[in-house]
Amino acid sequence: MLEFLPERIRASLRFLNxxxxxxxxxxxxxxxxxxFEGKFRYLGENGIVGGKRNALLPTRKEVEETLFxxxxxxxxxxxxxxxxxxxxxxxxxxxxxAGSYVYEHGQPLSVRAVxxxxxxxxxxxxxxxxxxxxxxxxxxxxxxxxxxxxxxxKTTLLRDLARLIGNRTGxxxxxxxxxxxxxxGDLGEFSDVIRFADKLTAFTAGIRAMRPDVIVTxxxxxxxxxxxxxxxxxxxxxxxxxxxxxxxxxxxxxxxRYVTLSGVGEIDKIYGADGEYVD
Length: 279
Hints:
By secondary structure, this protein is α/β, with parallel strands linked by helices. The protein contains 7 helices and 14 strands.
């Protein structure tokens, strides 16, 4: 994991417990920061430092070389990802890209002059979704949507739910992993994965070819709800997440259960299909 980073940054990370490292922010010629134990801190030569004066300063060249290495030294092989503003590392690390977008015929072609990278480190936390499973699926499976701002552990919860549902029910679980992050970990023995396809393509091809009982996907956008609706109407349970804070913000109420989070992996409320609280 994180082999694509410059050696001096990897050397500094050896002082940290990577199980508590969630995100790395590389900005050209600016202090290097990490989300460690849920808080952003500065990273120096020997690990966490108290102030930015002692933090590492990634150069523009290091930022560009990190992206090149994460692309397995072939940006052409990940062109479609780069157009969407990210690259996925071999271990499922999602590297978000900030820079200058280049357009052709009104569509994003690539990102040039890369100045910042947001590196999200996936974590497989076995058992983290036990409470959701027991409160929502103890009697029967249902479709479920997890809501929270970015970085609060939605993907980690979905990954564990895929494992729990497959292993405990024997259902066929299809994981639609658009960014190559959701499937970074143990999904159990009953899961099949479609990577790097948009949700409409993954849902359509997966339903036709893999006969899933459950589809798990993350980060729904408004345009994805049509694919979700077709799957649910076909009798398939869909588990998903969205960058929303409240039940009222969900554009289409398609799911049987809605879970809001109050912090990283912390359940706030569970709603039924009718918007009423579920004990």
